[in-house]
Design goal:
single chain, 213 residues, alpha+beta, outer membrane lipoprotein receptor (LolB), chain A, eleven-stranded antiparallel β-sheet, 4 helices, globular, lipoprotein
Length: 213
């Protein structure tokens, strides 16, 4: 039962947009208006980040995930835009996540349990869209640049109270390093990327949905 609770929390904390809620909605409401504080220079960087993300069609790398309780898991991630991604967790973790065909399927082989959610309801929807946009449906609430690292916080424009996604990028070369999700209790789940290779060949079979036993 404990593992079941942890795996369910893991899914919601990392991938469900509905769970990305900061503890105080007033803080989010204030943050939603912070976009006006972005300087022209900051706005220029945000535009560059958007262009860089749109230039990525395929990617392979390693990831390390840190849950709110400090539990660390690692694995390999593949991306093929638009719309496809695979998170394959290292053993002994029984977890696998595949995004394809407009949905995200999360498989726990130990529990023989599969969870399916619409891609558009997850942070992955932003990363995997045919055209990544950091305006319009998405509002950038803050931008920071220091020590060669960029940090962009974003919310859904129509419903900023649903949560915040914080993207971390390297400045030179400009590229995604990971992201942080904040849940309803203010707990943070971090995903860090490493050994990222872009433009690699990826097999369509990687994005086949996991089957139940």
């Amino acid at each position: 039962m404990l593992f079941r609770q942890k795996s369910t929390t893991l899914l919601r904390a990392v991938f469900l947009a509905g769970g990305m809620v900061i503890a105080f909605s007033t803080s989010l409401s204030s943050a939603a208006h912070a976009q006006t504080a972005l300087s022209p220079v900051d706005q220029g960087w945000v535009a560059r980040v958007q262009d860089t993300m749109n230039a990525v069609t395929t990617m392979k790398g390693r990831f390390e995930q840190v849950a709110p309780d400090g539990q660390r898991t690692t694995g390999t991630v593949w991306l093929a835009r638009p719309g496809r991604m695979r998170f394959e967790y290292d053993k002994p973790s029984p977890l696998l996540l595949v995004a394809n065909d407009g949905k995200v399927v999360f498989r726990d082989t130990q529990l023989d349990q599969t969870t399916e959610i619409p891609l558009e309801r997850t942070p992955l929807g932003l990363l995997l869209s045919e055209h990544v946009s950091l305006s319009g449906d998405v509002t950038v609430t803050s931008f920071q640049r220091q020590n060669g690292t960029l940090q962009i916080s974003a919310v859904r424009t129509a419903s900023p109270g649903e949560g915040t996604l914080i993207m971390l990028l390297s400045e030179q070369p400009l590229g995604l390093q990971g992201w942080t999700v904040i849940d309803a209790q203010g707990r943070q789940t971090r995903v860090a990327l490493s050994d990222v290779k872009q433009g690699v060949k990826v097999s369509d079979s990687l994005f086949a949905f996991p089957r139940e036993n």
